[in-house]
Write the structure tokens for this entry.
Amino acid sequence: MNASACEERSTRLVRLDDLACRIEAEFREMPFMRLTFAQVMGLWNLSRDQCTRVMDYLTSMGTLVQDEEQRFHIVDDAS
């Protein structure tokens, strides 16, 4: 892999991390917020691929979960 490809990949990773932080902050700011995948895409103007990656990341980290209606929400720290 050449230096340019490494820089591009690094930039994408930083952007994913930045996006995940922004989304997490919004969910923490509004702890009762429940959003579908389509709503997340629209609210943050994400492509399907971007939304899949960032929501997969946030759920795998245990930050967000999906309820029985497939809506994402912040994990309740009290539970």
Q: What stands out?
A: The CA atoms of residues 66 and 72 lie 4 Å apart. The helical segments are 3-29, 37-43, 48-60. DSSP finds three helices and two strands in the chain.
